[in-house]
Amino acid sequence: MRKVSIFGATGSIGQNTLDLISRSPDAYDVVALTGGGNIAQLAQDAVRVGADVAVTAFDDKLDDLRTALAGSGVQAAAGQAALIEAAARPADWVMSAIVGAAGLAPGIEALKQGVTLALANKETLVCAGPLVLNTARAHNARLLPVDSEHSAVFQALVGEDMTSVERIIITASGGAFRDWPLSDLATATVEQASSHPNWDMGQRITIDSASMFNKALEVIETKEYFGVRPSDIEVLVHPESIVHALVGFRDGALMAHLGAPDMRHAIGYALHWPDRRDLPVARLDLARMGQLRFHAPDEARYPALRLAREVMQRGGLSGAIFNGAKERALDHFIARRIRFLDMADAVSAVLERFEAADGLIDAPLTLDNVQQTDHLARQWVDETVLERAG
Ligand code: NAD
Ligand code: MG
Fold it and tell me: Which of 4, 58, 68, 377 sits at a 20 to 30 Å CA gap from 301?
């Protein structure tokens, strides 16, 4: 039996992961499940799969979790230290599916145990790519991509040599507003931004898809994971979300990965890698689909993509400042304190301030520095938002 843990088990990726492992209960021994505020879901799943421990990230939810797990034999724990403790428990395979920079520290702790880390949490690589890869190397751990585009690239690269790769193209659906006139984006609401045309995902990544901040994070994730030059990474808008990524080789060949927009594809690939197993996903009927469309993204519509290029140029801690600012701007948008387009303006302002602040950007890439930078980014976004409101 493989020992598995799922960080962010109550979320969209976490639930899809549980769906897959629950289909072969004899194959998996569940060590830890973690969640946030949805205690009922966390407890129910932990009992159903017989986890050793269930952890909520929030200290004040411990009593609720204890009550929900009473008599079940599943241990209850809460808070940051408990998350790290759960990550330190021996496991073979760990799903990293917490949303946001909060996923970084548990992921690093799991890597230190030499696990195979299935990485849905793209923020981990955006904030601390070299640190994470070095940690994996030092502890003989393995990182497998779960983001659909990166899984697609990973699959297109099987048997290939990176020296023959010329470019990597990741696709984007264009999100909720891809067909909206640019002038209407200023007044786009949270509800409008929270509905995705093709994918069923958590609210935050869905809004990030509408603003292309998700794709911006993914471009940086591509650079970090595959070690390619920023200029060799392209984004292509593809409204059908069927081709997830393409790899271009030096002989001009393009290898594409196609699949239904269902995250169980990428999760299942990481779960069974290097094998392929049956997965309960829809099979494509290309003849019925008839056509697949592609076009270049409009940078005026999606300033996040330009910001991602700046971040890749700078490197170091700029990924952490970018992601932290993005997360906090998104909090303000969801709380209706700022408007849709203000998010990119706020992130851009914080990046500029970071560039100008002496020495900050060149501090070494340690977990402490990343977390402090993340904190600073959020504080600066708050200041920017307050300033503009007043
Ligand atoms: P989600 O919002 O549905 O779930 C997030 C999970 O993280 C939940 O279990 C939640 O309880 C937990 N969580 C939230 N805040 C936390 C905190 N501060 N500390 C600890 N745990 C916390 O998110 P999701 O859509 O499943 O996305 C998870 C990750 O996977 C994100 O990094 C996202 O970018 C990435 N991803 C998601 C999809 C998708 O289809 N949903 C696709 C590709 C990549
Ligand atoms: Mg993706």
Answer: 377
Of 213, 244, 227, 67, residue with least CA distance to 150: 244
Instruction: Collapse the DSSP code of 255 into the 3-class scheme (helix H, G, I; strand E, B; otherwise coil) and give the result.
Output: strand
| Burial (Cβ within 10 Å: 0-12, 13-18, ≥19) of residue 252 | exposed
Neighbours of ion ligand 2 (CB under 5 A): 147-149
* CA-13 nearest atom, ligand 1: 26
Residue ID of nearest Cα to ligand 1 atom 7 = 98
Probe ligand 1: pick from 96, 99, 121, max atoms within 8 Å of CB?
99
Q: How far apart are CA 42 and CA 25, in angstroms?
A: 18
Q: Is the pTM of this model over 0.85?
A: yes
Lowest mean pLDDT, pick from 1-15, 139-153, 324-338, 346-360? 346-360
Tell me the per-residue pLDDT of 346-371, one tens digit each, with 9 for 90 and over.
999 999 999 998 777 789 999 999 99
Q: Considering only CA atoms, which residue is closest to atom 39 of ligand 1?
A: 201
Instruction: Determine how many CB atoms are found less than 10 A away from the CB of residue 183.
Output: 7
Q: Determine the Cα–Cα distance for residues 152 and 136; give it in Å rounded to an integer.
A: 21
Ligand 1 atom closest to Cα of residue 9: 9
